[in-house]
Design a protein that fits this description.
13-stranded mixed beta sheet; about 15% helix; glycoprotein; EC 4.2.1.1; signal
């Protein structure tokens, strides 16, 4: 009898855990909200669409934010960004407002303060969601990672108009193939996340949230300071592939609320 009760409790725990993860992760169907400020389901009203999205309106650690120099504490103890990515089978999914590249079984991991965060997916926002000293860039990539206990860490990479980005060039045909579909996940073979080249030598670090519903908080954000380049055509492809009739899929900046923002810069050797 004791054994049966224990088994029921364990199954209940698994169910609740998976339900929590489902609520805390980014939504795969983005059709219920919009980025139109004047819309009934626009950014200011995301928290009223579903009870489990209420944090979008009530949270005090929301993202994105403006990374202002005068707010930033320069530190040298965080260390160079420690990623251990590996080539893995990947799929592309048009979620409604963005294209998501998902690694089946994870694409390796990011290590922060001894915790491993498995790379789950990557998606893009135009223009950038985070700003640096009020400056907005043309595109921002988000590499979303999860730890075994359900915590999230995201790396943000900014892009400006310039030379083509080699990673986007590599998946261009797949992006075009999905442009007329929605909610269909397309296998695109083995993709090496290391090809999304980032600098990682200097970066911002702060605690924030997901930038799409359910806007879950306590997300560890790392914003690479080195700005990369894309062409206008690549930016247009990323935006138009989703066919959501919106000019942007970037959430407006959120209040910082006195959060500490660190900027990692290694000490210069004499």
């Amino acid at each position: 009898m004791k054994m049966a009760a224990t088994k029921i409790l364990f199954i209940s725990f698994l169910f609740l855990s998976s339900a929590f993860l489902a609520r805390s992760a980014e939504v795969d169907d983005e059709s219920e909200f919009s980025y139109d400020e004047k819309s009934e389901n626009g950014p200011a009203k995301w928290g009223k669409i579903h009870p489990e999205w209420s944090t979008c309106n009530t949270g005090k650690l929301q993202s994105p934010i403006d990374l202002l120099n005068k707010r930033v504490e320069v530190v040298s103890n965080l260390g160079k960004l420690c990623t251990h990515y590996k080539p893995s089978n990947a799929t592309l999914l048009n979620r409604g407002h963005d294209m998501m590249l998902r690694w089946e079984g994870g694409g390796g991991y990011l290590k922060i303060n001894g915790t491993k965060y498995q790379l789950k997916q990557c998606h893009w926002h135009t223009p950038s969601e985070h700003t640096i000293n009020g400056k907005r860039f043309n595109l921002e990539a988000h590499l979303v990672h999860e730890s075994d206990d359900g915590k999230t860490a995201v790396i943000g990479i900014m892009y400006k108009i310039g030379r083509p980005d080699s990673f986007l060039s590599m998946i261009e045909k797949d992006l075009k193939a999905l442009a007329s579909t929605k909610g269909v996940e397309r296998a695109i073979g083995t993709i090496d996340p290391k090809l999304i080249k980032m600098d990682g030598k200097t970066y911002y670090r702060y605690i924030g949230s997901l930038t799409v519903p359910p806007c879950t908080e306590d997300v560890v954000w790392t914003i690479d300071r080195k700005v990369k380049t894309i062409t206008k055509r690549q930016m247009k492809l990323i935006r138009e592939a989703v066919h959501d009739e919106s000019e942007t899929n970037a959430r407006p900046a959120q209040p910082v609320n006195r959060r500490p923002i660190k900027f990692y810069k290694p000490e210069e050797r004499p």
